[in-house]
Fold this protein.
Amino acid sequence: MGHTLRRGAYAALTAAAGAALLVGCAEEPPRQVMPGPTSTTTAAPQEATALAERYRAGGGDPDVYGIQVQDGPEGVPRVVVRTRNADEGDAIFRRQNTSVTAHLMNKEGASFKNGYYIDVFGPEGRLIHRMDARP
């Protein structure tokens, strides 16, 4: 009987924790990530190639061969990066994200006051990262 009581107490605790999590989630509505393509051409447009060349000349990641800043919803820009590195590792993405956006703000005059979306496409044109970086 004691074993059943422990199981019952555990179930009640689990239900209470789940309810608390649901209440916490209800306070902040989930963000919808901007939909976008999951693949693209491997050839970057000329402007994207030129921007990536300036980025690399300033010490940026040598694997990045295309960078575009496009209009996104509600005035939030969408940054599209093409890379020769197919590694899907989070550390590489974070490093690329930081260096690309820093270059865009400091050298290209981009403003990310409302945040940005970023898509990174690998060498075969497949989406390898998508992030919503709005505040």
